[in-house]
Batch of 3 targets.
Target 1
Amino acid sequence: MSSAPSSAELLHVGGERTTGESIRTQNVTAVTAIANIVKSSLGPVGLDKMLVDDIGDVTVTNDGATILKLLEVEHPAAKVLCELADLQDQEVGDGTTSVVILAAEFLKGANELVRQKIHPTSIISGYRLACKEACKYIQEHLTINVDELGKESIVNVAKTSMSSKLIGQVSDFFSELVVNAVMAVNEQETRVKLSIQSRLLMC
């Protein structure tokens, strides 16, 4: 009577499994390559990229999300980074280039720490703690109440966010439009709240 095959034998599909430092280095190299592609397109003065697909269609853009969508990425770690950028684009609509560059730098730093015999779990815990402390510092020292800013400052914030998008060339018009719309909604909400409060006081 033959013994049942082990889980390793059941999962074997003709390939080979490799682990260790060489694989970590390959992952970091792949992720860094993706980050380097979009790095020069970061910010309002970022450079445009010209992308040509298999049938010769040309796309010129400096939007990180668009660049990563058009890339043909095969490496698993690099694919994860592209998916991360796509999620950022879906959730926030901006910051895809920043997310990719930060993730690549975190991975490079983590790889150096692993080489120094620090366990990955400890590195992850350290990153999470650093995230909490960074958010706390930003909240306490770097944030300014919107009421303290003039309209011009808020328009400039909106303009910066639009500078890397397709409407970047008409960002003056659209930033003014967006700020006016948000302020109108805010004023309307304030009126509704005051109306509700006055009715409650009359009851």
Target 2
Amino acid sequence: MLLRKHEYTVLQTSITGGILANILFLLGVSIIAGCCRHYQNLNRTAAHLASSLLFLSATSLLIPTAAKLLQQSKGRDLLRQSRGVSIVLIVVYLCFVICEQWTSYGAFDEGSDGESDGESDGESDGESDGESDGEGKPPAVRPVSHNKKIKQEAPPESKKQDNSKNQDIDPHLHPITAILLLASGTALLYFNIEYAVESLETVNKSLNLTKAFIGLIIFPLANCDYAPFMLAYKGHLSQTVTQTVGKSIQTALFVMPCIVVIAWIWQLSEVTLVFDGFEVVSLFVAVLLLNVLMIDGRFHW
């Protein structure tokens, strides 16, 4: 709808702002809420692939923008370059969907949520009881302390916790009800976006806000889905990362290239992958920060 209204500035800033809002704001708040007491582990395969795809998308924006700022490419060359890169990004996204849903579904389905940092104490105590003294003698029999009895009785409680976590993520709606709610919510969202686009000029004049600020800050925060925050609070940080980073991947690798392709079909030569230098640098640094956080597959606040 922004493309139809020729609001190119708001369009580009809303794309980068949406990615930054998911990576920095929503994921950051979720990590603070879910990891305030202990570490939470992630699915390393999914985390590393997500960070790599985001790095690819940020690089695809950085190269055309740098080419324009450095005056290496102009006009028609930038347009052709943007359209070619858009087609490549769409193909990459489709390959990612095939890999995630069919060819390597098991690798992405595995995950560990809510594991604290002190779970190996009982195992280390048990291993120390069975070690020999290095002289070939059998290990000495040590009395079992009251604390170790408590540790031996702990697995049933952990099973109860695992069962409670599984109950939290079980579906509570009938599939038909869920589909109807999703369709109605999408329809209401369409009208909401239409009214928001129509009110851009009024907000710009009455509140004296620039269109770049509206696209970079207001639209992304209003469009954030705060369900990942509750998932992280309940100990399912892997699902939070999947939703927030996955939405950023979808925006960078699918929505943004599709906008360029649609503008190509509509013969709008103003739409390219050349973004503002400050926005691209901010996005690139945010993706680098996400790579550093996901390098070991675990989070703390």
Target 3
Amino acid sequence: MNYELRIIMIPISDNIQSWKKPIITYWLIGINLGIFCWELKLDASNQLSSFVNSWGIIPEQTNAAITNAIFYNSAAWIVVFWRLISLPLALFLHSSFSQILGNLIFLWVFGKTIERVLGQQRYLLIYLVAGIFTGIVQIFMEPKLSVAVIGANGAIASILGAYIMKFPQAKIYSILPLIIVFIPVEIPAFLYLFWWFVQQLFYGIGSLNISGGVANLGYWGQFAGLVTGAAFMRMVQRR
């Protein structure tokens, strides 16, 4: 599998019509782009590594802080609190151009429809809660991981899970770029469930200069986000 395979299927819209403006989706995309531009500025001044290591999720440090607070020093709960703050903040950090581009494309195509279905408050709630939950899963599944985990992958996975639960038969308008010819096609939404996991393998393309490296959310974390989104949509449907 190579880089060319990654770009042969690009979602651009779906066939679910609505006149409501996806305000929260606009804001999420804008915030992510704004922070990424700030990351580029920090990268140019060699300050990005310190920034990411301060605000990214580092499971080893978080687990060490919790252990120290429970068994040795109760004052260490301040450190635990500081590390837990990184859970929501890490959602808005990205380590490469390919990661932020892939996340924002999926957020736009699937997120705007889910926002219209759930409403602004519940949509933002599931985005943040699922993103934080997947970070917690990452901490427990890889307790010895010593590099920062950043990105909105878990939150986007929850949006995709909610979408598939609500619109399993929806068609996604996509383009297949072949050299200089862009071929428009309709692809079943369910296929993008598989494609989402495939594209995670290519998120290192266009990486920023972060010493020590960063890690993408593990597949178990993304699966947790997917299940969270689907379960939330199922609960809304039943109510």
